[in-house]
Amino acid sequence: MNTTTNFSNEDLKLFQASRTFLFGLAYRLLGSVHETEDVLQEIFIKWQQQPKQDIINPQAWLTSVCTRHCIDLLRSHHKSRTEYIGTWLPEPYDQSEDLLIESDYTLSTAFLLVLEKLSAKERAAYLLHDIFNFDYIEISEFLQETQSYCRQLVTRGRKHIKAEPKMLSTLPTSRQLVLLDAFKDAVHSQNIGQLKELLSEDIQFAADGGGKVSAIRHPFIGQSNVLRFFERLLFIAWNELSWKICLLNGNLGFKLYDHNQTYVTAITFNFNQSQISDIYVLRNPEKLK
Fold first, then answer.
1. Mean pLDDT of 216-241
2. Which DSSP string corresponds to 59-119?
3. Can you give the pTM of this predicted structure?
């Protein structure tokens, strides 16, 4: 039986109108562009097949299906992420079509890593309520939980988020551009003094190779440790690559390419009020496709 015979242009328009929101919700939940695209494809198929007379509120129906599907995926991923080789970093989300878009901390690598500390339902409830402004009546329907329990989920989520206050803000894009231009210049000129001025005292440097390419297994913490790593390896290694500044995960970052113009590294950042506070280096080729 053809389940899509009665699928109309209006149905397509309704889905497309919600697509940006659904993508933003799914990506923040999953930390993977590829999985997010797969989720949206699954939702679209279900939307095609669902009798529309059964749907009172299309936006609520799409949000509910998206949220539950992402929660199921997060639960299935739990073991693979806990057994991940080295540091797990989210897949970079490239928004470089418009570098003038103002930065968004809720897409940042730093923020997504804090969300990783939450359970699947805590993450969903927190995002739906505090980021996307749904009320508890709606969230209880999406999660199929009582309103009281949803409030508990959001409260627990907020507790984790507030424990990482530096993740809850970012610098204006114009200021990020100044810092990253100086960062690139310091690396290319191998100027350790200039680089030191750009990095906070408590700088953290993490890398994700996924066990597929070389990368540090545990983050470096502290300015001296990070500067030593640049002197030992990165000044030379990164000067052999070409750099492209991009809007990655809501902040400015870099894509690095080898001599064959293969995309081999994504670098994202977190900032305090005047310096770089975190550097995240993604080298896992499975996440750079």
1. 97
2. HHHHHHHHHHHHHHHHHHHHHHHHT-SS---PPP-B-TT-TTSPP-GGGSHHHHHHHTTS-
3. 0.91
